[in-house]
């Protein structure tokens, strides 16, 4: 992603943005061998930036995106079987980004993408309890007993009991004997939502992650992505700051 030259210089520790602008105006900065004096010039990590003849070592600019992952896409940076992966949607980025956590191959929805390893590791750590809301189409219509079981935790994957969960039925289809259920969890075990619903007798037919913390898919359709605002990034970091 291209950024203003003075911002790149500031991020690399050359000087403040204002001081970097003065260096540019004074003709002391070259980009790819050419002197640059205009302040509006943008560069990427692929450009060679020199200040007073010394090559600038650009720090890898941190970027943050929300991707509406379609079904049939792998939540990984690459796949040894040649299947489509989430990073295939970001081919024009100079940074190498990766998904925060995983979303099943046949599950659609919100995936957070970044190259900020520190933030990613904190968001995935169970101690921070980052809530994620899933909407599932299930076989059968869950009754109040099943919902209460989900809310208090059910035994899944080798006897592990899930943490307390927010669970509610959004809609039902009596003719097809199906229902749409919303679950909000903070754990991220393998096939967590599917296993929870299976445990109460309602196998998942279709699954979508709608929220990640305070982030949602508003304005996006399957395959779309958008960059997070500075306010959103700050809020994410605030979520994983221990008090």
TrEMBL record:
Gene Ontology molecular function terms on file: RNA binding; rRNA pseudouridine synthase activity
E.C. code: 5.4.99.-
EC main group: isomerase
Biological process annotations from GO: enzyme-directed rRNA pseudouridine synthesis
Gene3D superfamilies registered for this protein in UniProt: Alpha-L RNA-binding motif, Pseudouridine synthase I, catalytic domain, N-terminal subdomain, RNA-binding S4 domain
A GO term from the CC aspect: cytosol
Domain RNA-binding S4 residues, every copy: 3-60
The entry's keywords: Isomerase, RNA-binding
Family: Belongs to the pseudouridine synthase RsuA family.
NCBIfam families noted in UniProt: pseudouridine synthase
Protein name: Pseudouridine synthase
